[in-house]
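Hi R.,

Here's the chain you asked about this morning:
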Amino acid sequence: MAVVEMKRIHVYALKNNRKKILEMLQRRAVVEVDTPEEASLGEAKGPFSKTDTASARLTFEKNVQLIGSAVETLDSYAPPQKSMLAMLEGRTGVNAHQVQQTAEAAPEVAKIAANIVALGKRVNDQQAEIARLEAQLEALKPWMGLDISMRTVGTNSTSVFIGTFPEELTAGEIKTRLAAALPDVPGVEAEVVSTQPQQTCAFIVCLGRVGSKVEAALRGMGFTYPAAPSKKPPAQRAEDLQARIAAAQKDIEDAGREIASYAGRRQELLFTSDYYSMRANKYQVLGDLWQSPHVFYLTGYVAAPRAPALQRELEEKYQAFVEVETPAEGEELPIQLQNGFFAAPVEGVIEGYSLPGKHEVDPSKVMCVFYYVLFGMMLSDAAYGFLISLCTGIVLLKFKNIEESLRKTMRMFFFCGLSTMFWGVLFGSYFGDAIDVVANTFFGANIHVQPLWFAPLEQPMRLMLFSFLLGIIHLFAGLAMQIYQLCRRGKYLDALYDSGFWYMLVGGLIIALVSLDMFQEMMGLSLAIPPIVTTIALVFAAIGAVGIVATSGRESRGVKRFLKGLYGLYGVSSWLSDILSYSRLLALGLATGVIAQVFNMLGTMAGGGPVGVALFIVVFLIGHVLNLLINLLGAYVHTNRLQYVEFFGKFYEGGGRKFEPFAAKTKYFKITEE
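And here is the predicted structure, written out as tokens:
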């Protein structure tokens, strides 16, 4: 199938060409570097050693983080203007000359990023300072009536106590309690500055010689001193705090304006971030290379179709010595899928499960047919399919620079939309029965759109039988894939044992079941199957059953082999559950149609007048948008499920490792060749 053949490439080149070769390979993105360990080199290691590039790589990574923080800060003060469809526009392409220009300007841009980050930190610090000053200002509010410093402790002949009580008290109550606690202490005066629930701010003065006694009595009443008393009177202190808050706010505004002034450098910052990411990746590879004082060695994997051109370029342009060889038999090779226009869109679905493992084929070309058919059958409304294909088609035509993975997804849903249209026409569903309802309610006409095949809501049993038939074909296709995989490895007997016998058993049982009168009556069928066909089917089923029992445990001997064979035959029950799983085609197809008809019916509740027209339009738009979105998600999930569990379960294990070439892994721009 379409798993790209991989070759191992060995490159020996002069060290003074190292930078140019690595940058060329990074732009081409065709080689996955695979550095051998020291033990595998043995005596061949000779004068080769690795260079420690961790420090340089860390510097580049820190610059990436610095610029990322700067852009985040810049966006908060000068948000970029993005359209709702910005994600479809893709990354801007830049060539090698522009990369070189960015490299020359990178140090200056890094300084700009550092300045933006510093300004952002200044803003944050000032905001924290404002919060602290406002907290102090809030704490001063109860003391605004005090016209002396809160740190006043008295004079030469008096003692002053400024603080709070944990309850609401009047001046008289304070003096009364002090008099009761200190009956022999005269001349104590109290003034309440302010009161709040469960708090009284007070000013108490007494003769200096009895100050210690009064303080002890006050503490017994729960008296506490302010946590941060001001040197100046509270009103004056409040003015100072407000002035400092105003200064901090002005500093924030100034810093914000300076940050916003860099809005025009945003693209430059983003590109420089990508440049430093490329440098970090390059230095990571550089640190893994084996190098001598004059030569360096690079090895890895390259797609076979790209190998000759790459070898020629390295040899002619950089005077490198290049070897391209077929990897060893037991070597775990990276996997790269390559399919045509119709099958490539489902590669993402396969990657979501797992890439093909060793000796497995790429199932894309077979799977894509079933994927589109099953998806369309689950949604099965011609109007919904038209909308899906229309929207995805517009995206594909208008946004030429869209990312390749997203392009494949759009193309997949485009084909799914076409399939949905096909099944919708066969089943006569156009926004459910919207054409019939609109004609009858608003125009008084009796128009009925006839399905090209049949209406599932009128003949659900027929749809269920067709769903099971489609499921059987899907499962048998999986068995055929298993036979193909085994035969291409020369394991013809294994193909017979592991798949051929199952064809006989399951196929024979299905024919025998369909020939039963009871089954035909239950399903509403009228098939004239000759008895000889039934007999042959049962014979084939028996041969298949015996073959499965005899070969399922062939790696064992004696009784254990027989028991394993019986357990293998028990797997026929999983076939039953697999076939029944395709009833979801019936369930989702009916759900789409029923929900659509319900919304059409709700829209006509007000009749055919102007109010009825307005209500119908609102209900129609909201209802069908919801129905489309919900069932689109359901069709996607359940179609994937039928591939992953039922189809892949017959032949596919996965476990392959994705081909990850040494490339310019950029976030905001993409490197293009001139």
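One quick note: The domain at 1-19+28-43+290-336 is CATH 3.30.70 (Alpha-Beta Plaits).

Cheers,
M.
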